[in-house]
Q: What sequence folds into this?
């Protein structure tokens, strides 16, 4: 204990070192003399400053003389020359035929054939047979089936079936009888247009019944009407002189079947 007390007294009695601060030492808070000196800023020349603010001119690329640049706003792309004459291609709308002509429908020929059927005593033109128009026969067949449907008879299959067989039979018959060339389309066209009196008979059947004596007379009249019209068209178109009665008889048989469908 004696030695510890001596060491403690020696520790507290040690004089302060040179770098340590004593309790009564003063601190100097004065500003240095060099702090108040003026700051020297760098000066620039006005000409140098103006030159630095000028826009930068980049070198332009050298393009070939015969080729326009992509970034040229004055160049027009894909515009035709006004001074050159305009040439229209063959597929322009002005040169295209009408839609009915492209579909093979000639309204003037349809009207002429219809008038020829309605007036069997009129001599038809030979050029009518050359036009194998099937639009009119299709319309007449649909009208004939539609009137029968209004009468309570669903006979579309009978109309088309009997019509196809009759056209094939007439094609074979006219091929053997006529000296000129006969086409199946022309035969179908003539027989289809001559179905118009049967369409009128089926329209009458919608209003009144034709199963009596009056109906029988009307049916016979329509059969003769169809047979005369069809035979005259065939004879005129195929130049079959003095053979109209030979052609009218099978025509009457064919249209007689359609009259039976209408009556019963």
A:
């Amino acid at each position: 204990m004696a030695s510890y007390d001596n060491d403690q007294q020696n520790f507290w009695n040690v004089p302060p070192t040179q770098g340590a601060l004593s309790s009564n030492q003063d601190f100097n808070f004065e500003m240095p003399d060099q702090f108040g000196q003026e700051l020297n800023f760098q000066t620039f020349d006005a000409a140098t400053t103006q030159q630095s603010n000028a826009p930068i001119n980049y070198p332009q690329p050298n393009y070939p003389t015969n080729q326009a640049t992509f970034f040229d706003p004055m160049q027009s792309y894909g515009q035709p020359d006004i001074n050159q004459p305009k040439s229209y291609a063959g597929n322009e709308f002005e040169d295209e035929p009408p839609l009915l002509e492209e579909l093979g429908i000639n309204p003037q020929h349809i009207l002429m054939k219809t008038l020829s059927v309605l007036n069997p005593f009129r001599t038809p033109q030979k050029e009518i047979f050359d036009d194998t128009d099937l639009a009119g026969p299709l319309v007449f067949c649909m009208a004939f089936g539609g009137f029968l449907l209004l009468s309570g008879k669903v006979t579309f299959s009978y109309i088309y079936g009997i019509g196809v067989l009759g056209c094939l039979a007439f094609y074979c018959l006219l091929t053997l009888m006529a000296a000129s060339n006969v086409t199946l389309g022309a035969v179908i066209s003539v027989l289809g247009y001559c179905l118009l009196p049967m369409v009128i008979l089926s329209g009458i059947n919608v209003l009144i019944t034709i199963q009596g004596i009056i109906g029988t007379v009307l049916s016979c009249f329509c059969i003769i009407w169809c047979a005369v019209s069809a035979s005259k068209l065939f004879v005129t178109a195929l130049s079959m002189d003095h053979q109209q009665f030979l052609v009218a008889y099978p025509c009457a048989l064919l249209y007689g079947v359609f009259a039976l469908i209408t009556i019963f």
